[in-house]
Known about the structure:
Elements: E1 2-3, H1 7-19, E2 28-29, H2 32-41, E3 48-52, H3 60-69, E4 77-82, H4 87-95, E5 99-104, H5 109-117
Parallel strand pairs: 1-2, 1-3, 3-4, 4-5
Amino acid sequence: MLIDDDNASNLYHEIIITEDNLTEELVISNSVNDAIDKLQNMSNPPNLIFLDMNMPLKNAWDFLEEYKNKNLHRGSKIIILSTTKNPSDVQKAMESQYISGFLTKPLTIEFIKSQFNA
């Protein structure tokens, strides 16, 4: 699952994920609200969630709060995506029990493969 308000990033990430057949299904959300709605209606949770840090209206921290409050954690690995590597953001992300990693954009095929083997 990709959660990012930037359509260009989503398109690029979709291409690299689907080009290597890394998933049977890729779900893309452009907002926190859309992502939460989709997660609530999924019978099987995604293996990986790539979550953009900075989005309008609600950001990654808002997503995590709703994710926790609505009890949506069902084994998905969440990786924060950001255009910067602000040390305080990295620290905050790594202190969350729901975050498995922090990555500066863009995603790479090597990083994605490493997450399936981790």
